Amino acid sequence: MHRIVLAFLLIGSLVTKASAEPSAEALLFQMQRGYHHNNFELVMVHILQNNIEPLRLTHGWNNRTEITHLLTLSGRLVEYLGKNKQVTFAESAQVSYTLQESRLPGLWFAMMSCSPETLLKFYDVVSMGKSRIAGQVAQSVRLTAKDDSKYSFILWLEQKTGILLRLDVNDAQGNPVEQYLGIDFRFLSEHSSNIKTLAAMNVPPAETSRDIYRAEPPSHQWKLGWVPPGFAAKSSDQHKLIGSDELMDYFMLSDGLVDVSVYISRANAKPAGRETEQIAMHGATSILSVNRNDGVILTVVGELPLPSLRQIAETIEMNR
């Protein structure tokens, strides 16, 4: 009788423990809440190819203003400051500007801005084991893309709040292409002096992207073909790239997590008669430039595998 009672107690404790563990889907919602509702500081390293960049992320609230600050800790000073949906970009000592309706750059912040519903639509989500990241117990969650046109992700979330402590970006074979790895984490008080100092910083007046790039209306000369599942054109116009006087057709594609930029122009020189392409990789960001044999130059930039960018470029046609 004693053994039977003991068995029931053990089974009951296991069921209670299992039921207490949140599902992988619930962890995504917890990640969003944890990030946006807490004051914290996270020092991490951003790893891509052979480059390691140390960063410090500070997040919190000052009155009703959400403050997000990202700072490079070595090499060239780069700084981003978000106040609600206005972001100041200080990527050089000479030039800084503030954009309305923006977010900090990179997949880390894209993940924080993307709705869990969007992630669940395009990724298979599985809760994995626990580990220690930045001195904290963290629950890992795998997001596997439902097709090979996108990268997959592994997230490590602080066990109590769901704050993202580590983000791995992997290709279809599971090879890492980019990583944000937290190495030191601490919560900040509700009245943190760090947050108050950031909130008080003077920044340039907020502008729209069209103000900065002096965009012209779209030419409607071009038609997009294939795009990865979930992607759609969110904006289109004509504008000049920084350092260039040439007006280009521009499309911005997005699936809610990843943005892809498409630039279309015509070569100044006579076409060589054969198609050539140039490629570059910067972590998860692929850059493809195609000089077509009809004199059209297509440049596609985004956090997608190179074959996806190539298929986007190959199916762009001129409107007839």
TrEMBL record:
<comment type="similarity">
    <text>Belongs to the RseB family.</text>
</comment>
<keyword id="KW-0732">Signal</keyword>
<dbReference type="InterPro" id="IPR033436">
    <property type="entry name" value="MucB/RseB_C"/>
</dbReference>
<keyword id="KW-0574">Periplasm</keyword>
<protein>
    <submittedName>
        <fullName>Sigma-E factor negative regulatory protein RseB</fullName>
    </submittedName>
</protein>
<dbReference type="GO" id="GO:0030288">
    <property type="term" value="C:outer membrane-bounded periplasmic space"/>
</dbReference>
<dbReference type="GO" id="GO:0032885">
    <property type="term" value="P:regulation of polysaccharide biosynthetic process"/>
</dbReference>
<feature type="signal peptide">
    <location>
        <begin position="1"/>
        <end position="20"/>
    </location>
</feature>
<dbReference type="GO" id="GO:0045152">
    <property type="term" value="F:antisigma factor binding"/>
</dbReference>
<dbReference type="Pfam" id="PF03888">
    <property type="entry name" value="MucB_RseB"/>
</dbReference>
<dbReference type="InterPro" id="IPR038484">
    <property type="entry name" value="MucB/RseB_C_sf"/>
</dbReference>
<feature type="domain" description="MucB/RseB C-terminal">
    <location>
        <begin position="218"/>
        <end position="317"/>
    </location>
</feature>
<dbReference type="InterPro" id="IPR005588">
    <property type="entry name" value="MucB_RseB"/>
</dbReference>
<dbReference type="Pfam" id="PF17188">
    <property type="entry name" value="MucB_RseB_C"/>
</dbReference>
<dbReference type="InterPro" id="IPR033434">
    <property type="entry name" value="MucB/RseB_N"/>
</dbReference>
<feature type="domain" description="MucB/RseB N-terminal">
    <location>
        <begin position="23"/>
        <end position="189"/>
    </location>
</feature>
